[in-house]
Specification:
Helices cover 39% and strands 23% of the residues. With 249 residues, the protein is of the alpha+beta class. The structure holds zinc ion (ZN). Zinc ion (ZN) binds next to helix 5.
Length: 249
């Protein structure tokens, strides 16, 4: 690992009180991936860095990087973007918080991924824009981060045998493999049957095509399927907490 002063953009993932005056903040940075930082004095109302580091804000960080250190002392954090509209809409807030949760759960510390940073930064801004459909954006992001994490789901071919998916009525989804063709599902006795509508939705979300006239329940069903798939691939992932809170309301 390198040593020296780091200046990087970052998304605030979580914030924890530490002592009477300080916070421990988790960031996903553009240049260093996920890091944790101690922000001394951040709980004072006079601290600009403290005010800038609310969850989901995008900030510019300055800190000194030292070999072997797990927790850095953050020198300063300047606000770059504050998703004000997201904070006034419960569904948008739950979906944007889910983006932060996925980044925190699916990435390993100090592993840089410029594409993932850009996609996550863009997603928070999109969810914050007028007329946004946060649930569709979250589903799209879910496929994106799974792909960036090396466990992407592919809709055009069977995850087990690799043959092209042709008989849509036979398609199944398995929490280990992903999409399975009818033959493999039968042979392995795995996977749940998915409707052609759900398969169509997955296709649109991955390719970025517009999805028209779908039953809104399809999207919440798909979210549940993706959470189960993610739990299978990431032992520590326990599902999206922000969405569960929304469900309890
Ligand atoms: Zn197959």
């Amino acid at each position: 690992m390198r040593s020296g002063l780091v200046r990087t953009e970052a998304i605030v993932l979580s914030k924890l009180k530490y002592s009477d005056s300080s916070n421990i903040v988790s960031f996903y940075t553009r240049q260093r991936g996920k890091i944790s930082g101690l922000m001394k004095g951040a709980r004072s109302i006079k601290s600009k860095s403290g005010l800038a580091t609310d969850v989901l804000n995008i900030v510019e960080l300055f800190y000194y990087e030292k070999e072997g250190r797990e927790l850095y002392t953050i020198n300063s954090a300047e606000l770059v973007y504050h998703p004000a509209a997201v904070l006034t809409d419960l569904v948008a807030l739950a979906c944007a918080t889910s983006v932060a949760e996925l980044l925190k759960e699916l990435t390993v510390p100090h592993e840089e991924n410029e594409r993932l940073y850009r996609g996550s930064d863009k997603m928070i801004r999109l969810m914050d824009s007028p007329g946004a459909d946060p649930l569709t954006l979250l589903l799209r992001y879910f496929f994106f981060i799974l792909e960036e994490s090396g466990v992407g789901i592919h809709f055009e071919s069977c995850a087990a045998c690799g043959s092209a998916i042709t008989e849509l009525e036979q398609v199944r989804f398995d929490s280990g493999y992903g999409i399975l063709c009818g033959n493999c599902a039968l042979e392995k006795r795995r996977g749940i049957k998915i409707s052609m509508e759900l398969y169509g939705l997955i296709n649109c979300l991955i390719t970025g095509k517009r999805y028209e006239n779908g039953d809104p329940k399809l999207k919440t069903d798909l979210l549940g399927i993706l959470e189960t798939y993610t739990r299978t691939h990431f032992e520590t992932f326990k599902g999206l907490k922000a969405l569960r809170i929304l469900g309890d309301l």
